[in-house]
Design a protein that fits this description.
This protein has about 525 residues and is mostly helical. It contains 21 helices and no strands. Pfam families: Na_H_Exchanger.
């Protein structure tokens, strides 16, 4: 109805309406950045930047909702979920991988993978099962089991942009920051793979599906997407190493090619029926580690600033749109019980995720390298929901029939708003209460990643476990990890870059990588 109304106007009127709509969007973006700067400058952590953007969208949407121009304004913001996945999410996900400092990320890689892969799987299953049981017990609207698992997968995607920006501002333990940031980077990839796997299972008659084939399909999607992303990253490294583009009159071409490679990776994976988000994430990690050093200095500065810029704009616009959509769209608010119990179940699932994974990690680590309880609590508290959960929920509106997708979308929107406003606004108080503030600027902290104070297990003592086979295999795994580091330093880095591998040392000067929004704004 909205589109037909818009089509009745003359081309001149439609162009004028489009211009006013774009102007309104630009004004909200400018206001969001200005308000965010003022809040950061005055160290007002009770209203993070993401929360401010969300509130701006809510206010403007509320004003539009009570005005006579509701239909026209809603048409200006009426875009499909494809807009998220094709234009907004790719730069955000690429920047997550590209901005990740290698040392703290790979030093804590075992713990990060455990939280992001196993933990996300646990959170998805626990959420899905609890929502299904809640429906059976008539506590909430009843959804089919596979759709419950789809909801569990999409709502397990964490996006702690507000927490990470405050982590940077206040200064916190580098290992804790690396865990939160690293989990959020890989968690998005895991969540979207789980969601798409469950969507395929649902469309292929889940009653006849073999659980083993579901696992195989998930591994096929995840590993295939990872391989595509890594392959594109290595290809770009070789191109920039041997093409000789780092001369003055070819720097524009160098920058253009570098910017195009991430989207090439994304479209390649999507064209092969894989996950473009997973692919572009690992393309970002590989391109930062290998391709980036093959660029000229001017090109390095440009691509870093460029991806900071577009990811920050995309993230801000998403939060503004979420606020605007909440005020303007028709939601299934009649299912308040579904929203309330979903929030409770998600909190339970997050706790099960963090504490069970931390227990497994600490089980195989010496006492002086275990993840302390206060860091586990901070991890549990940092499980905000954001852009990825919102985009997948928007897609579920079309994937699920009989209004089930709309129920999930409404619940996800409410959860995103509550976590961003409440958890994001109380992060500073949480950090002080857990006494994890002020460790981020310790000049000796960087040594903890490879020393006795860090989380990184080294191939050291078995601490008198008297031939425990599990610990012996763990020791072998630690040595293999060290061997991979040696392989990277001695073979991969010299082969794919024009450097000798020593450039990694400067990355340690900034062990806290930029968050998706905080890194750009905080500089």
């Amino acid at each position: 109805m909205e589109n037909s109304t818009a089509e009745k106007g003359s081309p001149g009127q439609e162009q004028q309406a489009a211009g006013v709509g774009i102007l309104l969007q630009i004004m909200m973006l400018v206001l969001s950045f200005v308000v965010g700067h003022v809040l950061r400058r005055h160290k007002f952590y009770y209203l993070p930047e993401a929360s401010a953007s969300l509130l701006i969208g809510l206010i403007v949407g509320g004003l539009a909702n009570i005005s006579d121009t509701e239909t026209s304004i809603r048409a200006w913001f009426n875009f499909h979920e494809e807009f998220f996945f094709l234009f907004l999410l790719p730069p955000i996900i690429f920047q997550s991988g590209f901005s990740q400092a290698p040392k703290p990320f790979f030093s804590n890689f075992g713990a990060i993978v455990t939280f992001a892969i196993l933990g996300t799987f646990i959170a998805s299953v626990v959420t899905g099962v609890l929502v299904y049981l809640g429906g059976l017990m008539y506590l909430m609207y009843r959804l089919p089991f596979v759709e419950c698992l789809m909801f569990g997968a999409l709502i397990s995607a964490t996006d702690p942009v507000t927490v990470l920006s405050i982590f940077q501002e206040l200064g916190t333990d580098m290992n804790l920051y690396a865990l939160v940031f690293g989990e959020s980077v890989l968690n998005d990839a895991m969540a979207i793979s789980l969601y798409r796997t469950m969507s395929i299972v649902r469309s292929n008659d889940p009653s006849g599906q073999n659980f083993f084939m579901v696992i195989v399909r998930f591994l096929e999607t995840f590993v295939g997407s990872l391989s595509a992303g890594v392959g594109v990253g290595f290809t770009s490294a070789l191109l920039f190493k041997y093409a000789g583009l780092d001369i003055d009159n070819l720097q524009n071409l160098e920058c253009c090619l570098f910017v195009l490679f991430p989207y090439f990776s994304y479209m390649l994976a999507e064209g092969l029926g894989l996950s473009g988000i997973v692919s572009i994430l690992f393309t970002g990690i590989v391109m930062k580690h290998y391709t980036y050093s093959n660029l000229s200095e001017n090109s390095q500065r440009f691509v870093s600033d460029f991806f900071h810029l577009i990811s920050s704009l995309a993230e801000t616009f998403i939060f503004i749109y979420m606020g605007f959509d909440i005020a303007m769209a028709k939601h299934s608010w009649s299912h308040v019980g579904f929203i309330f119990f979903s929030i409770l179940f998600i909190a339970v699932a997050r706790a099960a995720n963090v504490f069970s994974c931390a227990y497994l990690i600490n089980l195989v680590r010496p006492a002086h390298r275990q993840i302390p309880l206060k860091h586990q609590k901070a991890l549990c508290y940092s499980g905000l929901r954001g852009a990825m959960a919102f985009a997948l929920a928007l897609q579920s509106v079309h994937d699920l029939q009989e209004g089930h997708g709309q129920i999930i979308f409404t619940a996800t929107t409410a959860i995103v708003v509550l976590t961003v406003l409440l958890i994001g606004g109380s992060t500073g108080t949480m950090l002080e209460a857990l006494q994890v503030v002020g460790d981020g600027h310790d000049p000796h902290l960087g040594e903890g990643f490879e020393g006795n104070n860090g989380y990184v297990p080294t191939s050291c003592d078995e601490e008198g476990t008297s031939g425990n086979r599990f610990r012996m295999k763990l020791s072998e795994f630690r040595r293999s990890t060290a061997s991979f580091s040696e392989l990277d330093r001695n073979y991969l880095t010299p082969f794919f870059t024009s450097q000798n591998g020593d450039d990694d040392d400067h990355e340690e000067d900034d062990p806290m990588p930029s968050s998706r929004r905080g890194g750009f704004r905080g500089q």
